[in-house]
């Protein structure tokens, strides 16, 4: 912190910029006044303390820097911080109690149609929306801790909410207790990297109409459901953790109307369904781990031209389930722990094709109460015979080169 | 018993009875309703005098799994005979108006009751046959399980609840029987020997069955973050944009966005929708009837699935919000046909 402080001082002296200090025992005690005094390029340095100044608007290009986490309190009445200038940096504040659930969707920090804004190292606690980027470009949201205490039955906004923006970087934030941890809508060419989104009421991450984005190495755990990606093209998902999203209709990852995307290196562990796909096409799903889920993947009949290869399916109740019969997806070269074939030529690939779709998964898809008969002798028998001679399940639902050993992923 | 003429009043009733016999041919006589979780709207088998109707193909498909024979109209000789039986009864009743003999009415009534008993026995026989005569090589064999639907009333068969009751035509016939009995009571002055069957209330009771089968169309509250939208699968998290539709059969579907409800109805046009509810934008999660609500539609309204439609219970509330969103005011039929 200190280093940053000196560094900024150094930079600002080089740029002939001044530092305007705010604090209880400084000449200027009000943040609003300091912002009014500051010129473009100055730093407004806020010392530790509690500031209740209603809605603070930053309307010129300044560095807005907190030392020792000064608290900006919205008293449940105001939007705390509104950024209305390009190039603003907001760093090191604790922002609490924004207004609540009004038409304007009050936020902890909101950026209004501006570019190159950086919001970093802040703590946001108990705000309606946490950080909201509206129509911004090249903004950075980094190292913020965002907490709220939403209850199931009341309205609450999202942790990091981005709308109609481009080239954002959402990095290393932790979000909990909001409706959706991170929400992207009409956001393009952006990256979501190394965030931890846990215990949010609806989704860890929610993506709508946002093309050409990537989310990498994030953790989504214990949310109402993990991640929902809807109506989106060309999205890349690498090395994320989708864990413990349990519930009646919960899933690790919901894909609805997605195309031309790439899902690789993710871990889906202990979810009701690891991936639930509807209306997806041309997706490559490779090198993921599906472990201890109710359903590894649920692929609805509306999915086509997806390639699912080199994944490990381990310890799921059902590896794959579908509600249709027409299968236009490829499932080659995965490791299935339920595979019982043999490998006489020792090339690591099973000599018998594997039908990953269990008859029972199909039956329960159409008839949930049949679950009563799960693991009964008759059903096991039916399942076995079905695997050998598919009659009810689609026989082209097949892995022709099942692996004998799990991949080291 | 002397052969006496019957009164004018009874003749009018006879005319009604004969009309009932003829008109019953236009309606299904009997219905077997099947309900199961995977068929939220239920399946129904309707027996007309001359054919089987309803979801026959789906039921045949299901029956295939348990090894039941498929149902085809042409397998039943009854369907070729029954229409003539009812036409005969109708003509017999018409004839009675002109012959107007009390004895004839008695014969008519007795033969009708006998026919009823015969039909019930026949129906039971078919039910038994279809329910027990199963293909031993079926996909699902439950030892000792028979799939005989109930003659009348309710019975659970595996995961299906089967409900067997008269349909419109059947009720007409029952009404015809009751009216005939009423004529006999009136003409024979049985009132002293038997306690008078109070026909009025009985009729009302029977009619009320057909008219007000006990479906309740009241709005079911949306449970935020528990209920999922039945169209887009998202959890409903905001009680200002949601909607709900209740079908003819009383099934409830919930949506997170008014547009989702409209899309759902478009996608399921064969489902008969009964009532529509929408969230009142000015309140927290309150559902109001859609037909009488006032709507705003605009780009700036950020509803969960970007339908951009919100609802108000009054014009004034709408007018207060309208400038904020720069939205245009529309009515339900426009919303629904969007």
This entry's quaternary arrangement is heterodimer
Structural class of chain A: mainly beta
Question: Largest chain interface and its two residue counts?
Answer: A-B, 28 and 24 residues
Helical content class of chain B: 40-55%
SSE pattern of chain B, N- to C-terminal: HEEEHHHEEHHEEHEEEEHEH
Q: Tell me the fraction of residues in β-strands of chain A, as a range.
A: 35-45%
Q: Indicate the mean pLDDT of chain B.
A: 82
Biggest sheet descriptor of chain A: 25 strands, parallel
* Large-scale geometry of chain A: elongated
Structural class of chain B: alpha+beta
Q: What gross morphology of chain B would you assign? A: flat
* Major beta-sheet overview of chain B: 5 strands, antiparallel
Helix count, DSSP H or I runs of 4 or more residues of chain B: 9
Strand content of chain B: 15-25%
Indicate the mean pLDDT of chain A.
89
Helix share, percent of chain A: under 10%
Write down the Rg of chain B.
27 Å
Q: N-to-C terminal Cα separation of chain A, in Å?
A: 38 Å
Q: Would you report the number of β strands of chain B? A: 12
Structural write-up:
The complex is a heterodimer of chains A (409) and B (338). Chain A is mainly beta. In chain A, 10% of the residues lie in helices and 39% in strands. Chain A has 4 helices and 38 strands. In chain A, the strands form 2 sheets. Chain A has a 25-stranded parallel beta sheet that branches. In chain A, strands 3-6-9-12-15-18-21-24-27-29-32-35-38 form a 13-stranded parallel beta sheet, with no helix packed on it. Chain B has 338 residues and is α+β, with helices and mostly antiparallel strands. Chain B is built from 9 helices and 12 strands. In chain B, helix 3 (78-99) runs antiparallel to helix 4 (102-132). The termini of chain B are far apart.
Draw up the topology in text:
The complex is a heterodimer of chains A (409) and B (338).
Chain A: H1 2-14, E1 19-22, H2 31-37, E2 43-46, E3 50-51, E4 56-58, E5 63-66, E6 71-73, E7 81-83, E8 89-91, E9 94-96, E10 107-112, E11 118-120, E12 123-125, E13 129-134, E14 140-142, E15 145-147, E16 160-163, E17 169-171, E18 174-176, E19 180-185, E20 191-193, E21 196-198, E22 203-208, E23 213-216, E24 219-221, E25 225-233, E26 235-238, E27 241-243, E28 253-264, E29 267-269, E30 273-278, E31 281-286, E32 289-291, E33 295-299, E34 304-309, E35 312-314, E36 318-322, E37 328-330, E38 335-336, H3 359-366, H4 377-388
Parallel strand pairs in A: 1-2, 2-5, 3-6, 4-7, 5-8, 6-9, 7-10, 8-11, 9-12, 10-13, 11-14, 12-15, 13-16, 14-17, 15-18, 16-19, 17-20, 18-21, 19-22, 20-23, 21-24, 22-25, 23-26, 24-27, 25-28, 26-28, 27-29, 28-30, 28-31, 29-32, 30-33, 31-34, 32-35, 33-36, 34-37, 35-38
Chain B: H1 8-23, E1 30-36, E2 39-47, E3 52-54, H2 56-66, H3 78-99, H4 102-132, E4 153-157, E5 160-166, H5 168-188, H6 199-211, E6 243-247, E7 252-255, H7 258-267, E8 273-279, E9 287-289, E10 294-297, E11 309-312, H8 315-325, E12 328-330, H9 332-336
Antiparallel strand pairs in B: 1-2, 1-5, 2-3, 4-5, 6-7, 6-8, 8-9, 10-11, 10-12
Helix pairs in contact in B: 1-3, 1-5, 3-4, 4-5, 5-6
